[in-house]
Amino acid sequence: MKVHEYQAKEIFKEYGIPVPKGGLATTPQEARKVAEEVGGNLWVVKAQIHAGGRGKGGGVKLARSLDEVEQVASQIIGMTLVTHQTGPEGKLVKKVLVEEGLNIEKELYLGMVIDRSTECPVMMASTEGGVEIEKVAAETPEKILKAYVDPALGMLPFYARKLAFGLGLSGDLLKKGISFMTNLYKAFIEKDASLAEINPLVITKEGDIIALDAKMNFDDDALYRHPDIAAMRDLDEEDPLEVEAKKYDLNYIKLDGNIGCMVNGAGLAMATMDIIKIYGGEPANFLDVGGAASAERVENAFRILLSDPNVRAVLVNIFGGIVRCDRVASGIAQAAKNLKVEVPMVVRLEGTNRDEGMKILQESGLSFITATSMAEAAEKVVQAAGLK
Amino acid sequence: MSILVNKDSRVVVQGITGKEGTFHTQQCIEYGTNVVAGVTPGKGGTMWEGKVPVYNTVAEAVEKEGANAALIFVPPAFCADAVAEAVDAGVEVIVTITEGIPALDMMKVKRSMKGKSVRMVGPNCPGVITPEECKLGIMPGYIFKKGPVGLISRSGTLTYEAVWQCTERGIGQSTCIGIGGDPIVGSTQVDLLKLFNEDPETELVVLIGEIGGTAEEEAAEYIKEEFTKPVVAFVAGRTAPPGRRMGHAGAIIAGGKGTAAEKIAALKEAGVHVAESPAEIGATVARVLGK
Fold this sequence. Notes:
- The complex is a heterodimer.
- By secondary structure, chain A is an alpha+beta fold.
- Chain A has 13 helices and 18 strands.
- By secondary structure, chain B is an alpha/beta fold.
- At the A-B interface, strand 7, strand 8, helix 4, strand 10 and helix 9 of A face helix 1, helix 4, helix 5 and helix 8 of B.
């Protein structure tokens, strides 16, 4: 699960990780009030959306007076921000974070994830802060320092020292840097994060180390033990169809094509999308109906995938194991009747009770195109969608 | 021969009295699996379905019934504890079906297994099956058939698809393993390839991968260096949109790896026969085996 920058910074504060003074605003008037409380004579107004690249898209602006804070806040709130991560349709900005402007001496990078290969947490630091870190990783990987932390030991000082010395910190800054990293590790582990990223991490002219930006993602599987994090979820940031799908425990991801897919199992669902493409079509979605595909669940799955107006044909690919094909077939027949499906539908059932399932579909009186293999199903659905 | 489990495996089911545990234990026994005990803390001393003794701890199941393999259906919040208990009790093979274990829990448990001879499969997986001998999982038993093909897969239903394509052509399997879809899994592709390399019954291995992580790249490297048998692979997710699940920092670690195209290139480089379409896995196996 993703959270906003201002939410990540609230967590940082809880763990003693320095962040700029600031507050959240949903109107230009509120933004002015926050700026007044923060004080000083330079402020930053930052759009709060989940995507990165906000600055380039015009979602982060400096203001040198309270009037200017109000003015830039009115530009940002309500704008549709387009960045390389939002897609061309952009994201509507509803909230801004207003913060004190800092006297920046140097911009660094600090990040943390669980590394799949070594199966331990890794903290990464770089002197190349404030730029796209993927670019640094690709072009000058030696500039990214890594500390693989033994989870049984935790963030011992030597790990932090290794990174802090590597960043060229010394004296008071070295101590502050070590404390920053130790606290970040603690926050990450205690909150079951899957990613923490601070880009840039800044050193101010006054000699402080502050998280100018903050990004945190959390392990969905661990949210049950973090009600505070779960409460930070912002449904405005998610695709409405995906939110709807989650209600029914369906794993749905909307894509740009026009062939709707309903499959059981994530791997088979991905493979189904792949084979549609091989036959010249484009999948409209990824949809895993899961292991317990009851009639109700199948009907909800259909309703969600058909509410995408781009869908011109549907492919159902079920490999019955514990899920029996006859049950899924009843669900399909019921859904097709209740929802008045108007686009052509290709059904491929294999595995447990396949023949019974096919019989149910044939006797339902509804028109289905049937297929026996994945290849045949893909070919037929691409034809049915009128793409070939 | 086969790997991990066979007709001599003595299985303890952790979470046997739950709904999932009961249903799948029933199916495993019907397939012929030798389920010798169940564990549900607090229900020790009872008989499950009148035929399998239930114990309070895994240690008792090992001591009294000689259990040497564990099948785990414990809910995610308590699952790391269940796995650690099985490790502590000295079980040799642990198969964890449970989906949704927090990544940090799994990280700790995996760490605790280092240096021990125990082998874990999963979590979030369909399990392990040695056809016609032992089923330790939730897969439909009838699609499998004894034979020379070993299979390692990150996916459940796609495994069934691949197995079915082989079985329909009369090509059976030695052992099939669903390693699970989580970021940290008990056994990696490389761990299992090493076992298949030593198994005289296995003539060919099917590797079913998917996007994310670098496990396929690591498998490719091992295959190139040490693996002596032909490998057929399919990688799912060529059409998956980039960046939907991976954050920035993850991409840094992977050093640009993780896409289907890169995995396919690495596997081909290692001499693996890569099926371009999921519908051609069985046909590719048949061709390589000369059948």
